[in-house]
Amino acid sequence: MAFRSIRLFGDPILRMPAEPVTEFGDRLRAVVTDLLDTVDAPGHAGVAAPQIGVGVRAFSYNVDGEIGYVVNPEVVELSEQQQDGPEGCLSVPGLGFDTRRARHAVVRGVDVDNDPVTVSGSGLLARCLQHETDHLDGVVYLQRLAPERRKEAFRQVREQDWFWR
């Protein structure tokens, strides 16, 4: 289908929980195709449907050559072991902040035919799975930062030319 433009932090769709997919057909296939086309661009590790303006529970990922998608994803396992590291977001361009995430994550959902899908990963893939599922819950990673760091991050966001005023 097409590479879709990314909605930026401040857009209300990024704060709303996405609706579960209940109809599996051509419309869903088109959204998933757009998610896959959009995540295939350089520097894109993951794209959630709300980031392209579609309020449904679906995301695509592209980490270390592994490209895929999940519809109606749910995080079913997070390791107790944590990782701290830089995290960015296509909806918050040009900024990145160290964010604590589980080192390993497992997500279960379905594909466009409503067949079961499980994706598990460690390191960057685990970070991506958690980050994209957060988007579907209306959470942008900045909200996961420690209070003082979050305050500084929001200040930096407000200074960006792209920020909605």
UniProtKB/TrEMBL annotation:
Pfam families: Pep_deformylase
Residue sites binding Fe cation per the record: C89, H131, H135
Keyword rRNA-binding listed: no
Catalytic function, reaction form: N-terminal N-formyl-L-methionyl-[peptide] + H2O = N-terminal L-methionyl-[peptide] + formate
Top-level division of the source organism's lineage: Bacteria
Sorted UniProt keywords: Hydrolase, Iron, Metal-binding, Protein biosynthesis
Keyword Iron: yes
Residues at the catalytic site: E132
InterPro entries: Peptide_deformylase (IPR023635), Peptide_deformylase_sf (IPR036821)
GO MF, one example: peptide deformylase activity
Cofactors demanded by this protein: Fe(2+)
Xref: SUPFAM superfamilies: Peptide deformylase (SSF56420)
The protein's Enzyme Commission number: 3.5.1.88
Top class in the EC scheme: hydrolase
Comment on bound cofactor: Binds 1 Fe(2+) ion.
Family annotation (CDD domains): Pep_deformylase
Family indicated by similarity: Belongs to the polypeptide deformylase family.
Function statement: Removes the formyl group from the N-terminal Met of newly synthesized proteins. Requires at least a dipeptide for an efficient rate of reaction. N-terminal L-methionine is a prerequisite for activity but the enzyme has broad specificity at other positions.
Name of the protein described by the UniProt record: Peptide deformylase
Organism: Saccharopolyspora rosea
